[in-house]
Specification:
Elements: E1 3-6, H1 15-30, E2 37-41, H2 47-53, E3 61-65, H3 71-81, E4 84-88, H4 95-102, E5 106-112, H5 115-134, E6 141-148, H6 155-166, E7 176-177, H7 180-188, H8 203-225
Parallel strand pairs: 1-4, 1-5, 2-3, 2-4, 5-6, 6-7
Helix pairs in contact: 1-8
The structure holds adenosine-5'-triphosphate and magnesium ion.
Adenosine-5'-triphosphate (ATP) binds near residues 91, 176 and 183.
């Protein structure tokens, strides 16, 4: 326990990056005490599982490859066996998506900072609200901006964030910045912190961004689990 699900109906929004980054950082933090973390890859393309098969994957990270038929059982099993469960999904509305969000403690909706992407995130939010009604269960969700500029917050992004906030949608304070190191782990394997600075630039900045993101996820989960959340 708990389960965090990445969902967005838009392909390429940054779900797998958000899932791998969270799984890597929580595994890194829990490595010494052998705190187990689960990454459930329920996307038929299996991008997350492919990353985990490369060298350097943390030893305390357990990877489960799921489909729409097995995902609920896999989430239950992973919740029993791990301190955190992270689910990566495909970029379309599917039975696997519906099943996964039915078990989520927190749904993260990755979104790039354009109006088109924000409109797609709204579609995902509508789907979550439908699922919430269907399952008669509150589903907490939060929008995570991805691939943002490290240097400045563009005015458009600020405007989009304010639109969500005005609509009562929870938005992460932290965003995942656009960094080569996030791409590099997908090629080389392993976690950002262990990349070779001779091969990849910006490792420290990226590692600190990943940490801030994981801290905010943990904070949100704490609030949700203690019943303080209004999200
Ligand atoms: N913060 C980032 N910095 C640099 N590159 C990024 C970042 N986030 C995502 N990318 C790149 O953008 C592409 C799409 O990201 P990702 O695979 O995470 O999206 P996705 O939502 O999982 O896509 P799909 O719907 O196809 O599964 C990838 O090539 C990834 O490396
Ligand atoms: Mg993906």
């Amino acid at each position: 326990m708990p389960t965090v699900v990445m969902a967005s109906s838009k392909g390429g929004a940054g779900k797998t990056t958000a899932a791998i980054t969270l799984a890597s950082e929580l595994s890194r933090q829990g490595e010494e005490k052998d705190v187990k973390v689960a990454l459930i890859d329920a996307d038929p393309n299996k991008h997350g599982a492919k990353w985990a098969k490369k060298p350097g994957c943390p030893g305390n990270l357990n990877v489960y490859e799921s489909d729409e038929e097995t995902i609920i059982d896999d989430i239950e099993k992973a919740e029993d066996e791990n301190a955190f469960v992270i689910v990566d999904l495909e970029g379309t509305a599917s039975i696997a998506v519906a099943n996964a969000v039915s078990r989520a403690d927190l749904v993260i909706i990755p979104c790039q900072g354009s109006q088109d992407d924000a409109d797609e995130a709204v579609k995902t939010i509508k789907l979550l609200r439908q699922q919430s009604k269907a399952f008669r269960r509150k589903i907490a969700y939060s929008v995570l901006f991805t691939r943002t500029s490290a240097a400045i917050v563009p005015r458009t992004l600020k405007f989009i964030v304010s639109q969500f906030k005005d609509a009562g949608v929870d938005v992460f304070n932290v965003s995942l910045i656009e960094k080569d190191a996030y791409k590099a782990v997908r090629s080389y394997g392993g976690i950002v912190n262990n990349l070779d600075p001779k091969e990849v630039s910006g490792i420290e900045v990226t590692a600190s961004n990943a940490k801030a993101y994981a801290e905010e996820v943990k904070r949100k989960l704490k609030e949700i689990m203690s019943g303080d959340s209004d999200g």
